[in-house]
Amino acid sequence: MNTAHDIAQALVQIHAGMLAGEPRHQDLSPQDLAAWDTPHAGVLLACRWLGFLEADAQCVARAWQKQSQRTGHFSPIDWPCWPQDFGIDTGPRAKAFAPCPPALGLYAVLPDAQWVGRMAQAGVKTLQLRFKSADQDAIRLEVRRAIQSVQGTDSLLFINDHWQIAIEEGAYGVHLGQEDMDDAPLETIRQSGLRLGLSTHGYAEMLRADAVSPSYLALGAIFPTTLKQMQTAPQGLSRLQAYARLMQHHALVAIGGIDAPRFPEVFRTGVGAIAVVRAITGASHPEQAAQALRDLVENLQKSASPSQNGPKTNL
Predict the structure, then answer these.
(1) Domain boundaries in the chain?
(2) Are strands 105-110 and 273-276 parallel, antiparallel or unpaired?
(3) Residue 207 vs residues 32, 34, 65, 85: alpha-carbon distances, Å
(4) pTM for the complete prediction?
(5) For a surface tag, which of 34, 115, 116, 259 has the fewest beta carbons within 10 Å of its beta carbon?
(6) For the range 167-174, what are the long-range contacts, defined as Cβ-Cβ under 8 Å and sequence gap of 24 or more?
(7) Does CATH place domain 105-309 in 3.40.250.10?
(8) CA proximity to 240, closest of 277, 210, 272
(9) Integer CA distances (angstroms), 312 to 58, 76, 210, 273, in order
(10) Quick one: how far is CA 164 from the chain centroid?
(11) Distance from C-alpha of 237 to C-alpha of 86, rounded to nearest angstrom
(12) For 69-95, what is each residue's pLDDT tens digit?
């Protein structure tokens, strides 16, 4: 492996499971060659060929370079998964959001308060109200009803997007997308005591989310989904495993196209929760479907091997 292209070709073969979407055929520019030594220019090129967005490819190349410096040699086998190589401090943080359970279990994303109440009664551990409306009064009423519907149950309720109303109505937590991080006053939300979940779709977004120390990270979309128009390709299990190892200091939720037959392989990556939508709301008997998925999750968590969460790197 004498050239960056040779290294990239070898890396693509070794880490073929990291391919997501279409390969990007962007070659190395003179600026790339000036900025990187040969091995890590090869990493950058390989990440492009594996379909990583440019910001994510740059993150991986920098982390691989830090890994090489830390270990004293460049290893094409070991995909970087150590937080320190990505500039992540895993120690206690003074301005972290309130914690939630590390294993949130079955996580149902639901369209209205009635659904929230039904799933709380069915014993679903974690719920999210994703209520869409331009009417602020209607949103407030739905949030209030959803919060009331989980009272007396063990369910934890997150409110999607509507952070101000969630604070005022006394919700357990709020879930925000990446685009919301620019507008929402995160410090105000943190000081209110609300738990915060953040959506992520790759390395750059995970690092951005980690910097604000949320209560959990949602990782996705793992498999194809028709529920939402995604700007990124489905990430797949190999990437999910790398993400879970890197971000194991957070509670982690896998989301996107995950049906019951895929639950075992998803949990084997090290995440503590799986989010579902249509597996419940599209079922002919939603309560029965929810209870079956809940039982499946609990059994999988009981049988999970502790070694799955170790800081392995050879993906």
Answers:
(1) 4-80, 105-309
(2) parallel
(3) 22, 25, 17, 12
(4) 0.95
(5) 34
(6) 167/192, 167/194, 168/140, 169/140, 169/143, 169/144, 171/143, 171/147, 173/100, 173/197, 173/215
(7) no
(8) 272
(9) 21, 14, 20, 20
(10) 24
(11) 21
(12) 999 999 999 999 999 999 999 999 999
- CB 40, CB 16: distance < 8 Å: no
Structure tokens at 251: 């509670």
Task: Measure the CA–CA gap between 83 and 69, rounded to whole angstroms.
Answer: 14
Cα→Cα distances 110→43, 146, 279, Å: 40, 10, 11
Nearest to 157 by CA among 108, 86, 190, 91: 108
Phi, psi of 212 (to 5 degrees): -100, 5
The token duo for 259 is 């049906």
Instruction: Give the list of residues 6+ apart from residue 153 with CB closer than 8 angstroms, or none.
Output: 120, 121, 123
Q: Where are the alpha helices (DSSP H) in 36-194?
A: 38-49, 54-71, 113-121, 136-150, 163-169, 186-192
Type of residue numbered 160? N
* Pairwise CA distance, residues 67 & 78, whole Å: 9
Query: Does 311 have pLDDT greater than 50?
Result: no
Task: Specify the pairing of strand 173-176 against strand 216-220.
Answer: unpaired
**How is residue 300 annotated by DSSP?**
H
Q: What CA–CA distance (Å, rounded) separates 269 from 218? A: 14
> Which residue's structure tokens are 């609990």?
298
Answer whether 240's CB lies under 8 Å from 255's CB.
no
27-58: per-residue pLDDT in tens? 999 999 999 999 999 999 999 999 999 999 99
